[in-house]
Amino acid sequence: MTLLFSPVRFACWNALFTLWAALMIAGLTARLGRLVKGWSVLLGLLLLTGGVVSCWGIFEYYSMSMPQWRVFGTFVNPDFLAGYLLLIIPLTLASFVALPKVPYRVGLGTLLIAQTFALFLTGSRAGIGALGGAVLLWILLMGWGRAFKPNLKPIATALLLCLVGGVLGLGPVRNRVEAGQGTGKSAVGAIQASANTQAHSGEFRKWTWRGTIEMAKSNPVFGTGIGSYEHAYPRYTEVAFTAHAHNAYLQWTAEMGLVGVLLLFLPIASLCAFSLHILRARRRESMQGEPAESFGMFSEPYVLLVGFFASLAATLLHCFIDSDWFVVANAVTLSAIVGLMLAMARHLAPLATSTPSPLPKAGLILGVPLALVLIWQGTSLLNYRNALSTGSVMLQTQHLQSALTDFQTAASTLPREPEAYLKQAMIYAGTRRPQEAEDALQKAVSVAPSGRTYYRLAQFYVQQKQLDKAINAFEASRKLEPRNVQNLRALADCYREAQRTPDAKRTYELVTDLEQGVYGRVRAMPEMIEAEFAFAHIGLGDLSAEAKQWEEAAKEYYAAVKVFEEFWRNRASAYYGSTPTNKKALWVEKYEYALKEWKEALKRWSTEYLKEARQASPPNPPLSDYTLRKKSDWNDFTLSIKRLTEFLQEKAKEPAPSDAGGSP
Fold first, then answer.
1. Gap between the terminal Cα atoms of the chain
2. How far apart are CA 233 and CA 215, in angstroms?
3. CA distances from 196 to 6, 171, 179, 238, 526 (A)
4. 88 and which of 50, 226, 355, 389 could share a cystine (Cβ 3.0–4.6 Å)?
5. Which DSSP state fits 627?
6. Closest CA to 598 of 632, 564, 568, 635
7. What separation in angstroms does the CA of 18 have from each of 15, 21, 227, 231?
8. Higher model confidence: residue 294 or residue 140?
9. How many other CB atoms are found less than 10 A from the CB of residue 27?
10. Tell me: the pLDDT tens digits for 73-129?
């Protein structure tokens, strides 16, 4: 239903197939888990996979040789790795207690240390807090079910192993403080800098949540469609772009509407209620002195059932500040855990609910075609990504015809995906085949009418000097992403080239207004400088200079200089190090241009002021950190410009805060 009502249907297909696959995994796991041996094998695979991912993260940390590094392992984000480990660690903890044999406990204890160590290395404060809350819930439910006292020793050992992993993971925090001291900062200053970074992150999340709430309010019943957040959210954002809402509940509500919320939480609530009923029965049995039954090689199955509760609690807590469930690996893992929890609860329940029944024919009739569709979709997606990857390699090595063939293959494999068409257009434009490039871009727009595809189409029209078409495409992108400063600045440049000066000025001012508002003030990471603000100020400065409004021109160029100064101070940061070389070169070029034009505008303004006002000297410029030594210096233009030049040179030579990774 969300697909039918979605304004961005092209983005929903892959997410819909992922959801179907996750639901089928949950059903198959619950079915296979009816056999105790099968259940044990599936749980072992989950725990072992968690150990492999954890070791990968630990190796990553030590291979980077950077104390401040946050590991992400096989994920694209440290917080998503933390969300995955939160699903696994409580199960490892419970399995350690429920398995009495020493060899098993040695292996599980090693996994427990590695997983907790990796969680701390992610640097996720919320992840660490969610783990603490899940462990506390596990202990409370163990006590309530009268399973705590009989297992006191293994419980204490397991908690001690978690503590060991946590202590090992505290090393990066200590190293960050020492690194701050080594660069001339005090420990307090290093901690304060870290706190400021976290404050930026928290403020960014808050404004992201506000935009997501507006998105949900605008689409209350069916949402914008599963998997559409990345494309639908920019219409409602107050801050810079983000691909996730940093809150799984808000993102699910925005994408799936109230109907989707009910369909998500009713099954989870039913499973938890059913499992709590089993735990209550265990409590009654223990009060009557009945011994606990075994579950295969597990001596105490109720400990495991409580472990599943803790795993769900951990992910439910963490999803308040991250969108863990929208990562395929986390969604699949959660589905498998739900299936295993259901299988165990049915096994421990009365006989009437646990007796296996044959798979109904309706299930076969529905399941087999669905499984075939999922296999077809997975194969198509794999072939698409392989062709796209191979084509990108060929493009980098300048084998253009081979690259074009690969991109055409990718487009024919998944015709609803825009990336292959955009890549084709890049090759066509580079080989001077404009009509074919335009056709490919139009195809990308037709299958995926997003801000990005319209922006790429507009860039092509700018290159072809078709300014009216470019403006229309930029405006279409603006409707979908009204606060995309890159698109706004490009639109203003296009207006300016088309001699539509009032429109250009108004659009540049939209960018500078965003700089002064929440968009410019709140950033996910404080070192992420938005150069588009500087480019917009340069554009306004050029327009003012063309109109011979030298005071306004000086102010705008100075505003651009201030943005670039922030970039210059942070040029040794990891963010700057990951910036493409051509972009860094452009920033430096524009920085020098803004400095030069600022000096020229000040000179023209001072000359004009003296000529018109006929005073002995003008006031100092309204610029906070530049003043002449004497107002009378303005009467000696050579001296004043010399001193201004010296000041600008000193600004440009200011050292970066750290030499690591930085270069002028």
1. 55
2. 7
3. 39, 21, 17, 21, 8
4. 50
5. -
6. 564
7. 5, 5, 10, 18
8. 140
9. 16
10. 999 889 999 999 999 999 999 999 988 888 899 999 999 999 999 999 998 888 999
